[in-house]
Structures are given as structure tokens and as C-alpha cells.
TrEMBL record:
Originating organism: Alexandrium andersonii
Residue span, Protein kinase domain: 59-385
Protein name, per record: Casein kinase I
Gene Ontology MF, one: protein kinase activity
Origin: domain of life: Eukaryota
Gene3D superfamilies reported in the protein's UniProt record: Transferase(Phosphotransferase) domain 1
SUPFAM superfamilies, per the entry: Protein kinase-like (PK-like)
Length: 385
């Protein structure tokens, strides 16, 4: 019997299941057994194997999931602990090698301890000529919550989102890595006790910006674009090299999106060519009225101005940025109560302050982690990226 790779039946979906395929002899037997009629006789559909493939010996494929833009995603269950997790796969010869990048980052983060706001890493390897990555199962994305709330968040919710994501970006940057593709679908809520914790995900476009003490050099043109155009920094539209300031700028654009319900430059995405789209978007973002797009949220206005003041290799002052948003939150809480997010009826308690303390502790532990970037990852900083 010959074997091939096919999509599995319902309940065992995925491209990692071996499937039956007929030999020429079997096909001839089917045709000879067919009744003598003018009707075309179809060969019976061959079943896929009943036994699912186990990843790393104990992660069993269970069912497909739909998580934003990622299509090759499946639910897996630990056969030893019954813990559910997420499996993502990609061709191991992929030019981008996104899962390998993400596995590298999550491995590093897992060694730092504390609450990083990144998905827990379980396994990375190769199965059937595909990279497989198993990580913590998370809840809905901010984009999904945005839709549930009628495509508009309150100023307090946006400020709380800003505080948590400034922690996440600081954590990632301390690992010597840029996210480079920040958008609402990349931020997910946790489950259970972490239901009000935001997790930063999808590091398939990530890039090491610092190897030891050496920062990647600035390039004005010719760098590959990686983010969603609406949330990309001005530098990305120009084809310039990105740095930490660009992740912060993408965060600022995302906060504008949550406040206004849409981005002011969405109409500029209708240009006839990709280069014209980027030229129009870059100009729209450069010439925007910062005070107007911030919609009355003063810390957001200051975030935009701060991003534009940073030089390429500068290390952002995440603490000061968070403090500005926290002051705004405190003022709003005096009149609106202490609920953290619009979609949650749970009152904010001491967990918020506990997370702040824990995240600062993690940041301290991570200081100097970027020097741990192995030489084998220098491909991340190639000129074409």
C-alpha cells in the first residue's frame, strides 16, 4: 500500500496524517468489478488512518482552530497531562522561517521566569518535513473583542491596552528582537486566571536587531516590508530599516484604530500599485494631525511625538510612557469605576499592580539577554530583511 500526505478526516484535521492511495492494480480491480453500464463509476474514497500522529511523543492532534490570519493551526492535547495547546506548522524550507524565529524568542522568554505576556513554549521540531511549534492555548484577539464592542473602545480601555503592550514590547526588545508586524490580531487575551492579561503573539516576521552590543545598521532603502500597511511605521513605508521606535509607532497606530473605529488613512490603500500605496500611506502618516488622531487621549499624543523624537538606535523609556497612561487611567477611574476593559464586568483589583511589579522584575532579569543571541541566527539581520 502506498502512502501520501492529505488532510485528515473530521476530528483529526491537518496535513500531518498519512493517507491511503490506490495502486494501479487496485484501480484495475475496481474497474473490472464495475457493472456494465454507461454511467461513470467512481472509485470508492479511501479512508485516512485512524491513529493520529503524536508530536514529540505526547502532543496529540485534535481539531483545527481559526486564529486570525494563521490558517495552518490545530488544537493538540497533552496525552500525559490533558493540557490543551496550539500547534502551528509550516514548510521547513520556507524562506521566511517564521516559526523558527518564534520558537527562538519564546525559548529565550521561557528562561527568564516571571510573567512575560508571551505564550508559553512547549515544543519545536520537524515532523513530515514541516516545522511544528506547540505553544500555550490563548483566548480571543483584540480584533475579535473590538468587533464585539461595536468597533470602538473607551479611552480607559485603550489606555489599559497601552500599558500592558508597552510591557510586552519592552520584554521582546530586551530579548534583542523586534516584532515588526504589530496589529490587533497579534494580541490575544489569556484564559482562566489570565483572562485580563494581554499576550503578544505571532513573531513570524520578527527580527534580531541587536547581537551582543552591536545594533543593526540603518538602511534608508531596500528593506523588506513585513507589517500590515495600516499599522506600519513611516520608516517601513519608505523601505527603511526598522528599530524599536517603529514597534512603538505601530502600537500608537493600533491605539488610534481602537479609539476611532478605523484608521484615518484607510482610503489611501486604494492606489493602483503597491509602491504607490506605501507612498500614499507614508505621506498620510507623516502629515497627520497628531492631536486630532489621538482623539483627546493625551498620553497617546505624547507617544506619537516621542516616537518621532527617537533616533534609530535609541532605547525607549517604556517606564515613563506607561506612567503617563497610568495617570490618565487613574483620572478616568475616579469617575468611571475600576473596570479594566469594556468587555469585562470584572472589577480591576490588585492584580493590575501585581502585574506591573512582576513585569518590571522580568525586565530587570532580561537585561543583557540580547547578548545571548547565537551566531546561527545572524540570518535574521541579512540586508534583504
Amino acid at each position: 500500500m502506498l502512502f501520501g500526505w492529505c488532510r485528515a478526516p473530521s476530528g483529526h484535521s491537518g496535513s500531518l496524517f498519512p493517507a491511503w492511495s490506490c495502486t494501479d492494480v487496485q484501480q484495475q480491480e475496481i474497474e473490472e468489478a464495475a457493472p456494465d453500464t454507461n454511467e461513470e463509476v467512481q472509485a470508492p474514497k479511501q479512508p485516512c488512518l485512524d491513529e493520529p500522529l503524536n508530536i514529540a511523543g505526547h502532543w496529540q492532534l485534535f481539531e483545527p482552530l481559526k486564529l486570525g490570519s494563521v490558517t495552518d493551526v490545530q488544537l493538540v492535547v497533552n496525552t500525559q497531562t490533558e493540557e490543551e495547546a496550539v500547534l502551528r506548522t509550516e514548510d521547513k524550507d520556507s524562506e521566511i522561517g517564521g516559526l523558527e524565529r518564534e520558537a527562538y524568542l519564546l525559548r529565550k522568554a521561557s528562561k527568564c521566569g516571571g510573567k512575560t505576556g508571551l505564550a508559553t513554549f512547549f515544543h519545536f521540531g520537524v515532523e513530515a518535513d514541516r516545522h511544528v511549534l506547540v505553544t500555550q492555548l490563548l483566548g480571543p484577539s483584540l480584533e475579535q473583542k473590538f468587533e464585539e464592542c461595536g468597533r470602538g473602545f473607551s479611552h480607559k480601555t485603550v489606555a489599559n491596552i497601552a500599558v500592558q503592550l508597552l510591557y510586552r514590547l519592552e520584554c521582546v526588545h530586551d530579548l534583542g528582537v523586534l516584532h515588526r508586524a504589530l496589529q490587533p490580531g497579534c494580541v490575544r487575551l489569556g484564559l482562566g486566571a489570565d483572562s485580563e492579561t494581554l499576550f503578544l503573539t505571532d513573531f513570524t516576521q520578527a527580527k534580531v536587531y541587536k547581537n551582543g552590543n552591536q545594533h543593526i545598521p540603518y538602511k534608508e532603502h531596500g528593506c523588506r516590508r513585513s507589517g500590515s500597511p495600516g499599522f506600519s511605521s513611516v520608516a517601513e513605508h519608505l523601505g527603511a530599516e526598522r528599530s524599536r521606535r517603529d514597534d512603538l509607532e505601530s502600537l500608537a497606530f493600533m491605539l488610534v484604530y481602537f479609539l476611532r473605529g478605523s484608521l484615518p488613512w484607510e482610503t489611501h490603500q486604494d492606489a493602483p500599485s503597491t509602491e504607490e500605496v506605501h507612498a500614499d500611506l507614508g505621506e498620510a502618516k507623516r502629515s497627520m494631525d497628531v492631536q486630532q488622531v489621538a482623539a483627546g487621549l493625551r498620553p497617546l499624543e505624547e507617544l506619537f511625538l516621542y516616537c518621532r523624537s527617537l533616533w534609530f538606535e535609541a532605547s525607549p523609556n517604556y517606564h515613563t510612557l506607561r506612567r503617563k497612561f497610568r495617570k490618565s487611567i487613574a483620572i478616568m477611574e475616579s469617575s468611571e469605576g475600576k473596570g479594566m476593559f469594556d468587555w469585562s464586568s470584572v472589577q480591576r483589583d490588585d492584580r493590575f499592580e501585581s502585574e506591573a511589579t512582576a513585569a518590571d522584575d522580568v525586565s530587570t532579569v532580561m537585561t543583557g539577554i540580547s547578548s545571548m543571541v547565537p551566531s546561527t541566527w545572524t540570518g535574521w539581520v541579512s540586508a534583504g530583511d
